[in-house]
Amino acid sequence: MTTPTSTSTSTSTPTTRPSPAIAATGLRKAYGDKTVLDGIDLSVPAGTVFALLGPNGAGKTTAVKILSTLISADAGTLRVGGHDPAADAQAVRAAIGVTGQFSAVDGLITGEENMLLMADLHHLSRSEGRRVAAELLERFDLTDAAKKPASTYSGGMRRRLDIAMTLVGNPRIIFLDEPTTGLDPRSRHNMWAIIRELVSGGVTVFLTTQYLEEADELADRIAVLSDGRIAAEGSSEELKRLIPGGHVRLRFTDPAVYRSAALALREVTRDDQALSLRIPSDGTQRELRSLLDWLDSAGIEADELTVHTPDLDDVFFALTGPANTRSQPKESVR
Questions:
Q1: Taking the CB of residue 9, how many other CB atoms lie within 10 A of it?
Q2: Which CATH architecture fits 22-105+153-241?
Q3: DSSP of 2-56, one letter per residue?
């Protein structure tokens, strides 16, 4: 008698990556003989902040207008919130909110009336509109000013009201086109806190800005737009490592130890007056550990060690300066 054998087959379900909130491939736009966007690719994961940097006229606002259905692209495939802006603009508009460079606030009416007007545009019932308006005014610390004409608001208050109006339709994707331009430092930091709060709630933020500190503070990924193309893309730290100039600085107090170290180390820049040595470095943990191990094995002990990496200003000027050409390939760090 034979005992039947049973074969167990286990099937594993392949893991699928969630679709990006915003995706663009080969995006092109020209006005006459002026090419503004020259085949850019973008991919923005849901629930993140994506910053698009570039000088004036680089095409940042044009990209936002295309992605938010305000104008059409000449070429390229797009998906915003899973929808094609060209084929289903209404579905895209239902999923997004847009705060442009210039405030959409009507200064002739009160903050509350601005909110209720936006609720009407989103076809909310009167009771629902009043509830949403009250909640958002409180969330953005505008309740006390709600009955005052918006023309009396400070720049920071108008910007907060502008974003509150954007949120009336509960968008999952928000385009912020230079949202802190003209704000004082305190108002700018308040706006950053609002953006972080939105993202913590699962909202995707597509941010354009000329403030490099802003992108450094907020963005999960940054793309640098130059001459209509993406010159580089990555996290803030990844972009900084693309630019030469990073170094480790060793400072000594004993001239004899300094001279000994200078002789032992190669490819260093000496500062005999400050008794310091500058060693080229990309600032990564691996390279720093290797340098420390080598210094230890050579018996070199500096009194002070500091790591210097390029900042986003260096990245911006290197990638968007006059030496940059249209033929320069895109740098991508993933």
A1: 4
A2: 3-Layer(aba) Sandwich (3.40)
A3: PPPP-------PPP-PPPPSEEEEEEEEEETTEEEEEEEEEEE-TTSEEEEE--T
Minimal CA–CA distance to 64: which of 217, 205, 232? 205
Q: Can you list the positions of beta strands (E) in 242-281?
A: 247-251, 269-271, 276-280
| Domain 244-308 in CATH 3.30.420 | no
Count the Cβ atoms, other than its own, within 10 Å of residue 40: 22
Sheet with strand 75-80: strands edge to edge: 34-44, 22-31, 75-80
Query: Of the candidates 118, 109, 165, which has an alpha carbon nearest to the alpha carbon of residue 137?
Result: 165
CB atoms under 10 Å from CB of 21, counted, come to: 24
The dihedral sign for the CA sequence 47, 196, 315, 31: positive
Q: Where are the domains of the chain?
A: 22-105+153-241, 244-308
**pTM score, two decimals?**
0.74
Per-residue pLDDT of the chain (334 residues; tens, 9 = 90+): 444 444 444 455 555 567 899 999 999 999 999 999 999 999 999 999 999 998 888 899 899 999 999 999 999 999 999 999 989 999 999 999 988 776 688 999 999 999 999 999 999 999 999 999 999 999 889 999 999 999 999 988 998 999 899 999 899 999 998 888 878 888 888 889 989 999 999 999 999 987 888 999 999 999 999 889 999 999 998 888 787 777 889 999 999 989 888 888 877 889 999 999 988 877 778 888 888 888 888 888 899 998 877 788 888 888 886 555 433 444 444 4
23 is written with which tokens?
Answer: 């995706």
Pairwise CA distance, residues 249 & 268, whole Å? 10
Largest CA distance in the chain: 95
Lookup: tokens for 295: 């210094």
Q: Left if phi > 0, otherwise alpha if psi is -120 to 50, otherwise beta: which for 26?
A: left
